[in-house]
């Protein structure tokens, strides 16, 4: 009969810790050194663990990034904001920002971003045909990301908002390891399956030392346009509870609203098309953390843009009651 010896266990534990430490040192040596993007003060990434949860704050994975960029500029017109579409396989920024055409080149062979609504934008969608599929292997995608990061003439920017592709793969790692990132905003819908992937995304950012500025709960509630009854189609408070579990800020809710979807499809972000429907920024409580001042700016930018006035009518929310317009 074999007997475990405490001394042997202790020795194995020490060896295991030493091995882990050596592996960390080897990984650190092999990682690329982070190099800032010329002219850019702060980079904020907008990410989700799963596609379709509305990083773009509505129907596709990019509406949040678009409206966040516009919200940052609207909140403080003295700040310059750029928008980078890092979703190589499914670029959405050209449609959402109503931009077409190819970027011009500077004398230094740098691409000049296309601009609309005062936001300079860069996307793979400017470099390929509208309906052409991007069927590339990993090395080509990494090369494209490198060009989007290093061969764009942004000028001077206070913020560069990066619309990340869904998931936690090569593109995400390449971006977080190559440039210094001020923080990440994670977008999720309330249902459990989306929250699982949102948590994976948060853990990935933790591993690469990128602070999570907070979680946004998208499609949190549907409000009937006729009777104003509110229904939690995808559940309620899932992202809020996940934020508490992770110990990060909950930045707020974004409703499932027809206007956001329609305006996004037309290339007219709701911040621009419907500024009169936004809740005043004083209704958004200031972020309690002073450790990272951008958190307060993010809350104001996001929810001065998205929280609609209809949600202020004070109707009691009961997801189990039928809509008053429905006789059933």
Could you explain the architecture of this structure?
The chain contains 10 helices and 10 strands. With 328 residues, the chain is of the alpha/beta class. It has a single domain (43-312), classed as P-loop containing nucleotide triphosphate hydrolases (Rossmann fold). The strands form 2 sheets. Strands 3-4-2-5-1-6-7-10 form an 8-stranded mixed β-sheet, sandwiched between helices. Strand 3 and strand 4 (119-123) form a beta hairpin. Helix 2 (63-75) packs across helix 10. The longest helix is centred in the first third of the chain and has 25 residues, at 6-30. InterPro entries: Mrp-like_CS (IPR000808), Mrp/NBP35_ATP-bd (IPR019591), NUBPL-like (IPR044304), P-loop_NTPase (IPR027417), YlxH/NBP35 (IPR033756). It comes from Lates calcarifer (Barramundi). One of its GO terms (cellular component) is mitochondrial matrix. It holds the Pfam family ParA.
Kindly summarize this structure in a few lines.
Its cofactor is [4Fe-4S] cluster. InterPro entries: Mrp-like_CS, Mrp/NBP35_ATP-bd, NUBPL-like, P-loop_NTPase, YlxH/NBP35. The chain has 328 residues and is of the alpha/beta class.
Number of strands: 10
DSSP helix count?
A: 10
What is the rounded Rg? 22 Å
By secondary-structure content and strand pairing, the structural class works out as alpha/beta
Q: In CATH, what is the class?
A: Alpha Beta
Would you tell me the overall average pLDDT? 76
Q: What is the architecture at the second tier of CATH?
A: 3-Layer(aba) Sandwich
Strand content range = 5-15%
Q: What gap, in angstroms, lies between the N and C termini?
A: 71 Å
Please give the domain count: 1
Q: Identify the CATH homologous superfamily.
A: P-loop containing nucleotide triphosphate hydrolases
Spatial order of the strands forming the largest sheet: 3-4-2-5-1-6-7-10
Largest sheet features: 8 strands, mixed
- Could you give the order of the helices and strands? HEHEHEEHEHEHEEEHEHHH
Organism: Lates calcarifer
Protein name: Iron-sulfur cluster transfer protein NUBPL
Family: Belongs to the Mrp/NBP35 ATP-binding proteins family.
GO molecular function: 4 iron, 4 sulfur cluster binding; ATP binding; ATP-dependent FeS chaperone activity; metal ion binding
